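Researcher: Going back to the complex we discussed earlier. I've cleaned up the inputs and rechecked each line, so this should be the final set. Can you rerun the prediction on the complete assembly and write out the structure?
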Amino acid sequence: MNNLAIPVWGYWLMGLCLAGFVWMLVYSLKKYRGMHRSLYAWPYGLWMVVFTVIPLLLIGYYAFTDKLGNFTLENFANFWDSNRSMKRELMVQGFDPAALGMDARGTVNVSTLVYSLWMALICTLVSLVLGYPTALIMADRSFKMGATIVVLFVIPMWMNFLLRTVAWMSLLEDSGLINSLLKLLGFSKVQLMYNSQAVLLGMIYNFLPFMVFPIYNALNKQDQRWSEAAMDLGANKWTTFWKVTFPISMPGIISGITMVFMPSVTTFFIPRVLGGGNTEMFGDLIERTFLTADDWNVGSALSLIMMVLILFSLGLLRRVDPEGEGGSMI
Amino acid sequence: MQEQPRLINLEHINKEYDSVEVLRDINLYVRKNEFLTLLGPSGCGKTTTLRIIGGFERPTSGKVIFDNQDITDMPPYKRRVNTVFQKYALFPHLNVFENIAFGLRVAKRPKDEVAKRVNDMLELVNLQEYGKRSVDSLSGGQQQRVAIARALINEPEVLLLDEPLGALDLKLRKEMQLELKRMQQHLGITFIFVTHDQEEALTMSDTIIVMKDGRIQQIGTPKHIYDEPKSAFVANFVGESNIIQGRMIRDELVNFCGVNFTCVDFGFAKNASVDVLIRPEDIVIVGEDVGQLTGTVRSVLFKGVHYEMIIEAGGFMWKVHSTTMQPEDSLVGLSVVPFNIHIMHPMEETAP
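Model: Rerun complete. Updated structure for the full complex:
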């Protein structure tokens, strides 16, 4: 079946929706300027319902039901033991999994999650270590190239993230740019791809801007007089940084960590391209469960577990940074 | 006061930003325990001068001498000078106690000493109960006190204050003026105060330095600056004034508005054109037939303590302050005693 075949009335419907949307927007802006603020919110509200709330409810529904639509917690048990459904199948057919030596717990899901968390942690730490000095340099008023660096960080983000990741392949692969250069210089070829390090590199490359910008933002709006006051009170440059500049930039750091850690945990595609088949992260696992294994119920359960984990870590960070400052640039 | 030694000397200080001149040949000294005010309109270079003393700016040329030692290139954290910043610049991540303690913490003083000295400071600025509060929860006046306490805890020899009262309302500002003055006398610290408020400068200072366009216009005591301004600019900036062009007939006789007035100034060239300054409160309203000038009252404003009247006489609109009101359009005589007529060299209006 051709998925792209949209009936004629479909185009009419889309056109009508768009026209109605524009009309409502213009109308509400004109007539209710400042009076009924809630009216401005309805397009956003609609957007949220259609693209966030309903999918969430669907995920919840699938996660707690079996293929027939009956309530079950089996999907979560499947997360803990990925061999569970296979073992049940065996028992249904009258075999004893233990007797066959097949009663071991399937640890793929759990270990993939742990591996994802570990990779995300490393990615976040490296991004912080690389990103903070970068942001510091960019925010330095006496450094004239600051704005240029900002642009250099932004421009790659205009490109598709898949494209950027694939571009790394042509650098890292055996016949890639780096290895060709090494060969030219008389060194032997180095295996750069298809390992965790390559995946990590791709992740850091993709997510570093999300660390740099919140920190840059937090540093940039710091009052110069704060560090002057510290110096005035006897602190040298080093002490001034650690006692004033750094702690005041904390909200930016928290934002940066949040914005790097979240997409890192859910990373997919990058491990497949740069890691080959050797590494799998949780995002890929979810995708595989949905699309390859065609198991929407287990896939939803995995997504839900991921989401709870992210919400939990967000909640932790919110405690440290109640105002959610510093992330306003992105 | 006069016998105190000089603590700070600025010698031929010039400052340029991207080849724009902001300070030109600044020479001044500050005596120990003096309350010195840098007064001038915004952009006159007073804050830059203060920042050079604090060490936040380096002069393009010239020397800063502190206690007979050249400190021109010394970084701020080594100077025995502390600053109360404009808008205070309190550390937002520290509470009141830790803000004040900052200087001692940096110097790694023992804990009990820090606690004792910070509490003493809190008492000095009357904020005993506020140690645990966050600085954002304080009012402008309280933040001001924290900023002062933070700067004073290092026991500086000189306290620099950069328009510290600018953000306060009138009543609070008057209170803080008196309190600062009291603090300065009580602690025996040299204060260098930057302001654009002439009244503030007159109230608090031992010495005022009037600045304009990066140059010093006049240095003197408040009374000296007010009574004997060197130029029409100083006269206008410090207090209200009537400034008219006149001509010196000879020593102690000046002609303006077509009338000869006896004055006390001498040493001007014969027939030299001069600026004549008469303060509004020095003009006495007398009967229309006995005044040196006769004029008509054009407008009357009630100002609280006095009436401010604009009186047209001799082709000039005189601003006159008096406690008795003359009705509008009435004919009055104006009289000035010789001592209150002040003769100045005309302002070089267009000179760079």
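Model: Worth noting: Chain B is about 25% helix and 35% strand.
Researcher: Good, that matches what I expected from the previous run.
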